[in-house]
Amino acid sequence: MRSHGLLSCSLPVELGGQSASITELTAIARQLGAACSSAGMVFAMHHTQALSLRWHAAAGPIAELTRRIAAEEALLASATTEISTGGDVRTSSCAVVRHGDVVVLEKNAPVISYGEYADYICATARRDPDSRPTDQVLVVCPRGDTELEKTGTWDVLGFRGTCSPGFIIRSRTDAANVVPAEYASISSHTMLPASHTLWASVWLGIADAAVAKARSQVRSAARKAGTSTPPQAAKLADLMVIHQRFVASVAQQIDRYETFLATGEPDPTVGFTFAMNNLKLDASLAVVDVVAGALALCGISGYREDHAASMGRLLRDSYGPQLMVSNDRIRANNASLVLAQRGN
Hints:
Layout: H1 22-35, H2 37-56, H3 63-72, E1 76-79, E2 97-99, E3 102-109, E4 120-126, E5 136-142, E6 146-150, E7 167-174, H4 183-225, H5 232-263, H6 270-298, H7 300-303, H8 312-318, H9 327-340
Helix pairs in contact: 1-2, 1-4, 2-4, 4-5, 4-6, 5-6, 6-9
């Protein structure tokens, strides 16, 4: 990714990036997801942070940091969860402590994907020790200013290559590295919709790979059957209906996000956030449906780890999306949104 300029591509052109659109980024995420689910997720998580810098850290003193990140083709990781908040990314226990032009942060994060390999970690925290848990800021912590103490391991069913153990992160860095925007706005405008559209695109790539394997197996059966149509062909056609619905659902929400960005509005509507949450919910279930259906079509060949049609990794990875930001937590958030929503 670095050698092809894919780490800086979403950053602003004027700061050394390519100002890639959400449509372009999700297309790349889908292709990566089809080839390697973990690589696709690293790309998606990185650009969720890069887009946060693009939209919220492209002016003022912090713009030089964004320019440097683009020039370095730096890898950005995220520390938005905290051991004491139960995975709620919109509250923090830890706080930024200011000492003149320097800020100090210590955070116990249960998960930091590819944290050991990142050049910068974007961490959320309370604005200061007296702030409310929801009064958060985003701090960009350079590797050279940051110490990571590993607190866990990453021995999991799927997405193994994301390397996501827990860490205590301790950073002492320049106060200019605090993004000059409320995290609530960063989250609603960028992090939530960017993560859900990019993640869903990676998961669609997983589904693409599963369908490709199933199609190959059915075509092989058709060649052996001669002039008759094998019974698997009808099941493949049924699977393609599920896959095409998945494609259409993701495309619709990508267009919705592009439309919102084109308005230039700082904050989305409740309906927009609700739709983005539903994209995550729907995509996390659709990928399992497609992969499981493809496994059934491939039969024992798909069940074998030593066969070209093996579905082992795809199946394991397909169950991860329901757990990364738990679907139950998103449904609870949706329940609150429904009560707050007025009109459409």
